[in-house]
Amino acid sequence: MYRSRSIDFAVLELFALVSDAFSGAKEAFLHEDKGIIAHLVERERIIDGRYLALEREVHERLLAPDRTPAMVHYLVTIVRIIPELERSGDLAEHIARKGALGLVRELRPRARGLLESMAELALSMWSETAVAFEHIDPTVARRVNDLDESLDDLHVTFTAEIASTCQSIATAMDLALVARFVERFGDHAVNLARSTAALATLESPIPKGDLSSAS
Q1: Domain PhoU, which positions (predicted)?
Q2: All domains of the chain, ordered by start, with CATH?
Q3: Which of 18, 140, 161, 164 is deepest in the core (most CB within 10 A)?
Q4: How many whole angstroms separate alpha carbon 215 and alpha carbon 202?
Q5: Which tens digit of pLDDT belongs to each residue from 182-215?
């Protein structure tokens, strides 16, 4: 199997940056920490810079005259992976910015617990996917997909809870959007796990039921 040490390192660095950003976004939202919000906006600039640098390196290697089929398969898969990482960083920033609106004050204890459980589950999926990429473990994709079903169930329950408890329709819509961002973060983890499995199995890096077209 072809692998590039520098590209793998850059991908894993993006995994770590996005994971930290999402974890920070969760804290910023639940605790209305404006200091974290400002930090995450700067972190998003770093993620974007790393993303663009990695994208350039991959495209340059795809044009190399000595490329092999294994190399092309690896690079095309990486081309699919890096936008998922960048979009996930965007989701973290969106959640953090919503934290500045004080929406958490409108959450009843049950709804707050559901949202926190969603975020923790999404982070767990992300962590497993990062480790899977590091070791090119194709077995993780099915487990992450199962976790995503649990995340979807929590999302449905949370949405029903805020619909029945929020007095303001505008607030309920903002909270539903935050939950949607968290759910999308999990979807990106699923796509990343599938692409990692494609590296190991040498199957097409375009997963069935791809979810990456929405962000």
Answers
A1: 12-97, 115-195
A2: 5-201 (1.20.58.220)
A3: 18
A4: 27
A5: 999 999 999 999 999 998 876 655 444 444 433 4
